[in-house]
Specification:
Blueprint (H helix, E strand, L loop, with lengths): L18 H19 L7 H5 L1 H10 L6 E4 L6 H9 L34 H15 L7 E6 H4 L2 H13 L4 E6 L10 H11 L7 H9 L8 H16 L3 H5 L3 E7 L3 H11 L6 E6 L7 H5 L10 E4 L3 E4 L8 H15 L3 E5 L9 H6 L4 E3 L4 H13 L3 E7 H4 L3 H9 L6 E5 L16 H5 L6 E3 L4 H13 L4 E4 L21 E4 L2 E2 L2 E2 L2 E6 L3 H13 L4 E5 L2 E3 L3 H10 L3 E8 L4 H11 L7 E6 L9 H7 L4 H21 L9
Parallel strand pairs: 1-2, 2-3, 3-5, 4-5, 8-9, 8-10, 10-11, 11-13, 12-13, 17-18, 17-20, 20-21
Antiparallel strand pairs: 6-7, 12-19, 14-18, 15-16
Bound molecules: thiamine diphosphate.
Thiamine diphosphate binds next to helix 6.
């Protein structure tokens, strides 16, 4: 048989496909996934697991008009392949290419641009209610597909509760592959494990309850026996009791790799009145043995080369450690040093490299699932009880816990350490994952100390400092290979910046100063080196603390320098540069000499991190250019006023 996949421009092309043809198509989609992973890192195992489900959904519903939301969106590749994007599939996650997540700009089949877990049921319910109000005669079906990992998020239960109460016709497909990125955690996963054991159940709870109500309750001990008997009967028969009690009809468990079965039960959902949950059992990595055997490593693996069909070899990763690894090692050192130290992750044990902490300190390591707000409030509880908790969450996902950072952590002045990994531009994941807003949202919170290490040496010291500090702290670091800048040791002191090159040399004012926030420090030093060769002498300051800001050092630099450039890998609005501007303005200094470099007020696309940074001039070349520009502008201004650069102060 020839290639079917290349002939599919839209799901309509699947009409009339036989089961054999759909199975062949599924095989071709798997091959396309493997070819992709030969070139770049991408979400792999989750996508392999939903190929049959995707085909069944698109052959049962008409998503030209019906609505489909994939929770999180990392498992959208098969959907992209059959919704007119196969010819561009090889470009996925590269700059200018397809996004690795749903993107309404690419296709009307993608309704929301998403990447954070847990919002599918809420959005689907909103769509259903909206459609019922705006186009009540259309009878559109609305489907949300959610993984068992995302299911345990608090917001999902808010949505299930709301849906059950509204009794809306909504289909939730629970894609149960027994895994989050790491094995799923918590009691809901135990519940799902029990459900997987049961035989198919169609959710006729109301009928069964009628029968059960007929069982008479007599006096003790017969009453007790019958109550126990009734409960046992209920537990055995009402497989999906949790969902049924939330007002959903439960269908399942259904084999998620059998397209015919899937089509049958998905079609059945269209005939019911009220919300339905279809429990689909899939295998993460299905069809690719190494991924089935190790779904965690194959969630989003590094590019690999095939060997003998089944065996694979990963292309080499850089041997230098990442900032994540430096932070992890400092966390481990803290756990070893002090029995009161604990560490919490929200389903990102692998991404935060905390597996050794999980193995070595099972009592003080907590994976709370995809529940970031709970993670921070839980840490606050630990701190109140006398522990020293550290919460390792990516900057972008930490946004979920903002209210708990404010209320349970900062307002109580509790010693919780936030480790904001992936702060800055994260690269191929794109706008849903860039961690650029944390300084803006953390800065206004009283009590909170906010740090950004200039390099690996700083990061190590900051973790140690945070653990000994008697109040809430946050440390942000990027997704990058760690740099260690060669310089004399400079101990970390609360609210103190580090001067690497004085703005003022031997009593002579220099041409300006660069104030670096975070790991842009290396690029700032390199820019200063380049400019020195051109006769431009710049000072370089490593801010270290965003809050409290070292106003003494920074304001002195502003007062003495004709040009000040702040550099940060984060949103300009409300970020570090804003803090410098505010402080200078409060002190009555001339702020026109300050220029800020960072992420402007727009969402940044996906692409290699280095490319994206260069586009924003956040590399040595860009920083040097901005300095030249600013110095030229300043010179013109002073010239127009008849002052020379000698009147720098
Ligand atoms: C709010 C939030 N926290 C963390 C993540 C990181 N993350 C991406 S996929 C994933 C696992 C999702 O598991 P599941 O929903 O079961 O989907 P599967 O990959 O197993 O298909 C996690 C934790 C995220 N995308 N959003």
């Amino acid at each position: 048989m020839g290639s079917l996949l290349s002939t599919i421009d839209s799901p309509q092309d699947l009409a009339g496909f036989t089961v054999r043809e759909l199975d062949q198509l599924a095989g071709e989609m798997r091959e396309a996934m493997c070819r992709l992973l030969g070139t770049r890192s991408a979400h792999f195992a989750s996508n392999l697991g939903v190929i049959e489900l995707t085909l069944a959904l698109h052959t049962t519903f008409d998503f030209c008009r019906d609505r489909l939301i994939w929770d999180t969106g990392h498992q959208i590749y098969p959907h992209k392949m059959i919704t007119g994007r196969y010819h561009r599939f090889a470009t996925i996650r590269s700059k200018g290419g397809l996004m690795g997540y749903p993107n309404p700009e690419e296709s009307p089949y993608d309704l929301f641009m998403t990447g954070h877990a847990g919002c599918s049921v809420s959005c689907a319910l909103g769509l259903k209610c909206g459609d019922d109000l705006v186009r009540p005669d259309d009878g559109r079906h609305v489907v949300a597909v959610i993984g068992d990992g995302a299911l345990a998020s608090g917001i999902v239960f808010e949505a299930l509760n709301n849906t059950g109460g509204l009794k809306k016709n909504l289909t939730v497909v629970l894609n149960d592959n027994k895994m989050s990125i790491c094995p799923r955690v918590g009691s809901i996963s135990d519940h799902l494990d029990r459900l997987r054991m049961t035989t198919f159940y169609t959710g006729l709870k109301s009928e069964i309850q009628r029968v059960l109500k007929g069982v008479p309750l007599l006096g003790d001990p017969v009453e007790r026996f019958l109550t126990q008997f009734r409960d046992a009967l209920k537990a055995g028969i009402l497989g999906g009791m949790l969902f049924e009690d939330l007002g959903f009809r439960y269908l399942g468990p259904v084999n998620g790799h059998n397209i015919i079965q899937l089509q049958k039960y998905l079609a059945m959902t269209q005939t019911f009145d009220g919300p339905v949950l279809v429990h689909v059992v899939t295998e993460k990595g299905h069809g690719f043995k190494p991924a089935v055997e190790d779904p965690t490593s194959f969630h989003a693996p590094a590019p690999f080369a095939h060997l003998n069909g089944a065996e694979i070899e990963f292309r080499k990763n850089p041997s230098r450690p990442s900032y994540t690894r430096i932070a992890r090692d400092a966390v481990l050192a803290g756990l070893r040093r002090d029995p009161q130290v604990a560490v919490i992750t929200a389903a990102m044990c692998q991404g935060t490299m905390l597996e050794p902490a999980r193995e070595e300190f099972p009592d003080r390591f907590f994976d709370v699932g995809i529940c970031e707000s709970h993670a921070v409030a839980f840490a606050a509880g630990l701190a109140k009880a006398g522990m020293r908790p550290m919460v390792a969450i990516y900057s972008t996902f930490m946004q979920r816990s903002y209210d708990q950072i404010f209320q349970e952590m900062a307002l109580q002045d509790l010693s919780v350490v936030l480790l904001l990994d992936r702060a800055g531009l994260t690269g191929p994941d794109g706008p849903t994952h860039h961690g650029v807003f944390d300084l803006t949202y953390l800065r206004p919170l009283p009590n909170l100390v906010v740090m950004a290490p200039g390099d690996a040496i700083d990061l190590e010291m900051m973790v140690e400092f945070a653990l000994s500090h008697g109040g809430p702290t946050a440390i942000r670091f990027p997704k990058a290979v760690a740099e260690s800048i060669d310089r004399p040791p400079c101990p970390l002191e609360l609210g103190r910046a580090e001067i690497l090159r004085p703005a003022n040399r031997r009593g002579e004012p220099g041409d300006g100063v660069i104030i670096s926030c975070g790991t842009m420090l290396g690029a700032c030093l390199a820019a200063a080196d380049r400019l020195r060769q051109e006769g431009i002498e710049l000072g370089v300051i490593n801010a270290r603390f965003v809050k409290p800001l070292d106003t003494e050092t920074i304001l002195q630099a502003v007062a003495e320098s004709p040009m000040v450039l702040t550099v940060e890998e984060g949103a300009l609005m409300g970020g570090f540069g804003s803090a410098v501007l505010e402080a200078a303005n409060d002190a009555g200094l001339d702020t026109s000499r300050i220029r800020r470099l960072g992420v402007p007020d727009c969402f940044i696309e996906h692409g290699e991190r280095s490319q994206l940074l260069a586009d924003l001039r956040l590399d040595a070349e860009g920083i040097a250019d901005v300095c030249r520009e600013q110095l030229a502008r300043r010179g013109e201004e002073l010239g127009a006023r008849g002052e020379g650069l000698g009147a720098r102060g």
